[in-house]
Amino acid sequence: MAKVSPSVLSADFAKLGEDCKKVLDAGADMIHFDVMDGHFVDNLSFGLPVLVSLRKALPDAYMDVHLMITEPLHFVREFADAGADCISFHVEAANSIRSTIASIKALGKDVGLVVNPDTPVEAVYPFLEDLSLVLVMGVTPGHGGQCFRPGTLEKISKLRSECDRRGLDTDISVDGGVKLNSTAPQCVEAGATILVAGSAIFDADDVPSAVKSFKAL
Ligand code: DX5
Ligand code: ZN
């Protein structure tokens, strides 16, 4: 059974706390918090003060923070202090991947490394032993509601085999275009252990039952 991480990018920001509570009550394992800086991706979302408020409203929630920013190292301490439980950053963004991983770990947080659709999954291999998760993007990051890139499945299975070969139980998360009746079961079959879903959950007619259906995959 995969873990489910609803992406709040598709939530109603006027009632963000309520929307998060709804998915957590329905069984979501964590909250996926997408931070965009307008440089690394061509969009802006939200940042530290929003995370601080959410953490206050949901003291026990596991916050899965996805940094789509050019200078992750510069911000890891602030995100840790604001309430992140896991901080994921892009392998394409950081010059100093090893020091960024080390800083996140030193702050007592889980670390994820993210790989974009056009980046070979092998880019994360040198760091695998130090990661809690690898986040494989199913779309070019920046916007919710895009179509899943088919090559993503092969990347997930390659990565699963590499982790198995090394005896690692690293989580493999997939983000972007993850839909209940099509791509989500395919990702699980390929070896994904965390499903990030924004529009498929928050745009559903019945949000709690969408979460439950994801959990049942
Ligand atoms: C994309 C974000 C995703 C996004 C996924 O840049 O990282 O987390 O919210 O949205 P859906 O599930 O709608 O593709
Ligand atoms: Zn994301």
SSE layout and pairings?
Layout: E1 3-6, H1 16-25, E2 31-36, H2 48-57, E3 63-68, H3 72-82, E4 86-90, H4 97-106, E5 110-115, E6 133-137, H5 151-165, E7 171-175, H6 183-190, E8 194-197, H7 199-202, H8 207-215
Parallel strand pairs: 1-8, 2-3, 3-4, 4-5, 5-6, 6-7, 7-8
The structure holds D-xylitol-5-phosphate (DX5) and zinc ion.
Strand arrangement, major sheet: 1-8-7-6-5-4-3-2
Q: What's the count of strands?
A: 8
Relative strand content:
15-25%
The number of helical runs is: 8
On the 0 to 100 scale, the average pLDDT is: 97
Distance between the termini: 6 Å
Q: Which structural class fits the helix and strand makeup?
A: alpha/beta
Largest sheet: 8 strands, parallel
Bound molecules: D-xylitol-5-phosphate, zinc ion
The percent of residues in helical segments reads 25-40%
User: Per the principal axes of the C-alpha atoms, what is the gross shape?
Assistant: globular
Radius of gyration: 16 Å
Identify low-pLDDT runs: none
**Helix and strand pattern:** EHEHEHEHEEHEHEHH
